[in-house]
## 1
Amino acid sequence: MQDTYRLEIMSEFLNKKLSSLEPYTPGEQPKEKLIKLNTNESPYYPSRFAVQAIRGQELRDCRLYSDPESVTLRSAIAEFYGEYGISKENVLVTNGSDESLAFSFAAFCENGAIFPDVTYGFYKVFASLFGVAYEEIPLNPDFTVSVEPYLKDARTVFIANPNAQTGIYLPLDDVERIAASNPKRVVIVDEAYVDFGGDTAVQLISRYPNLIVIQTFSKSRSLAGARVGFAMAQEGLIQDLNRVKYSFNPYNVNRISERLATAAITDREYFNACRTKIILTRAKLTAALRETGFTVLPSKSNFVLAGTPKMGGAELQAALRKRGILVRHFDDERIRDYVRITIGSDEEIQTLILAVKEILNEKG
Ligand code: PMP
């Protein structure tokens, strides 16, 4: 799958602390043309405002460094969330939301971190990279988050909401209970998928000085390849994250991406049209899969986790790949029997549904 990065090759010079680190495995980015439903990108183009924002001059301006403060983009994000009292001092922009997460692991986890046992796989990797001790808190048997273990624990909490891999949304009241239960530790809510049906915790920021909300342009704003994410919190936490950023990469968001993201976030109409479409397609896919006997977890994300008693997740993924459709399978104990399907266009999802039916028929 990976043609340049080979985990098994290491030189004698590598820091010993890194030799046992297990890096994150990104989903496949295929060279050939496949129906790509494996890494939760948007099937829709970025806003036309974004596409039109990049002209010759913007490209020529790349001789200059980008604005290390990303003032234009931070102001645009603050305006988007202005109704919740967010100003640019409450926003940090980063190279994908992965970088906001990395900075949070670097900045706030002296006492260790806790997160669910089924969630975004990068949390463990960042914890290992930054030497953070962590504990994975089991999800309930139905894959919902059990809130109790997070209350009062002294360790930093990372909660993806909706959760990664399951798509299940934790009601905002529960997020608030976690933040309120111990104001002495930081709670990071990773809202990569919140625009597909969840309520954002941004509205809690003014009341909780220990809360960080992280979002991304990669999913609902169709800019995965531009690598832009952002963290929102009260100013103290944002300055802590800046301390890490300015110790690592001050120009972390490039000029072109800042322009793209600034234009995209002003186009509310297109944003709403795209996410509405994805929510509708998700409902159609969920219904069609359930009709064919699949278990489909209730998702508020741009993907569903689905499994059939007729075959394991790996087998289904392989069979779909043979038919030119890429979905993601995780070889993790609790979700091995499932595949994760990104919500594509209606057409792509129709093709997927037909392929699934064919595969099940062949299986008998
Ligand atoms: N958080 C979650 C839960 C994700 O699934 C992803 C996407 N893989 C990310 C963060 C990172 O997204 P990005 O760096 O593209 O913003």
## 2
Amino acid sequence: MNIKKQQKSYDLDIYRYRILILDFGSQYVRLIAKIIRELGVYCEIWNYNVSELQIRQFHPNGIVLSGSPESIINVSSPRVTDYVFCSGIPVLGICYGMQIMVVQLGGEVHTNDLQREFGYTQVNVLVDNFLVRDIYDFVSKKGVPILNVWMSHNDTVISVPQDFIIVADTNNCPVAIIANEQRNLYGLQFHPEVTHTKQGRRILERFVIDICHCRSLLDSNIIIEKIIFNIRKLVKNDRVILGLSGGVDSSVAALLLHRAIGKNLICLFIDNGLLRFNEDYKNVKAFCEDYNMNIIYLAKEERFFGSLIGIYDPEEKRKIIGKIFMEIFEEQMQSLANITWLAQGTICSDVVESAALDHSYVRIIKSHHNVAGLPGNRKFRLIEPIRNFFKDEVRKMGFSMGLPVNILYRHPFPGPGLAIRVIGEVKKEYCILLRKADLIFIEELRKSNLYLKISQAFVVFLSVRSVGIVGDNRKYGWVVALRAVNSVDFMTAKYTVLSNVFLTKVANRIINEISDISRVVYDISSKPPATIEWE
Ligand code: XMP
């Protein structure tokens, strides 16, 4: 398809209906965007600090105000232009976004330790309101519609602005949903964007489609074509290198780039010695051959292990690994000559957790290697075609482009690899043991048809030893933890409930087959408050 013709199909005006999301630094802001995109409506995330003019020029059909790690009680916490509330544009405030609406319109918020809520909470819908009409998880014995939601707030609304009504409360907190239907202003204390809030998507849909009157015009193929179009426009006839690990993210990025620029894409496979069994060069090479893509293999194990000697801190490890990856990319760009572009399969959760959004209100959770390793004074240009998308969206794109099933549904594997699954100092001998234990766990999951039902599973090497007995002898061996989680977008996750029979089988195999391991534990923490990886 030629570029002019493609441009036409975007002018189909997929941007005609648009939602503006104002970000106050929430970890979850991209999830709001993801749901709105999935509803087929175009949206953009902007820093909260926008002017009236910028909003007018964007011409949104609706505005969503995100949550924030800040407290509204703090006088220096972010505020938004009053135009947001008096423009006549429908507004939905989420968590901090609701509190800011309350405070800027004359209501009151305070901090009360007894009213803090984190995690699952039940919301009682007290009066009929269009935002949540006919949306509930169940009806209580007293006939009250109840929503099961995910809360995360320290501060609580105690009085609402004039002409607002309290639509819902919780047993702990007097205000969980507010509305001013005349002015189309709504607020939710809970997070509709996280998957734990089961009806969250329906509430956002009610707002975007029924209240803002947006029509659904976006779909996955249009998004793919738009990304390809943008890559061509940006890169033109230049050559690009891409670090291809064989995971779903870098493979989807490779396919998009290959479709956009063909032979001008050169993939690099860097063997850092921190890979799992069966996730090696062999498979990546086969994938590249199938699609006729250039691939170069680089053996760099010693360089990575050498740089990790004596390093215990997770953030330091991540940064060192990110830096070495970048050094290797830069070296290759020089030696291959004439290459100024580096492509990466960075996805949205990498960016959010590394606090690398365009502004810095988000708190750093972890420095993802492909984000944190980037040198400030880099000489190359960066292209990240899937930076705005979450794992499930990336998988959908991969599916549409015919990505093989073994790559498409492969569990995610972090860029720093086994280095962040060995707690503390990374040693080659620890990685060897970890790799063996991990292989057993994954093999057993596959045998029991559980692999595809779980979003991510792996073993962690705890770097502590414990006493056991084998026969009549004392055994002083290493401890490993099994981790399995289910998640849609990897921003939140629940630990997977595995049967005792299954866990026992895996633990027995690991202890019997790997003589240096004496104990196996199972991690039953969900995210939040834990993260998926241990480091
Ligand atoms: P956490 O541990 O932050 O992980 O809950 C969320 C998802 O991201 C993966 N992960 C990474 N992926 N580079 C990556 O490419 C990284 O540095 C990185 N750290 C975590 C993790 O495996 C999970 O799927």
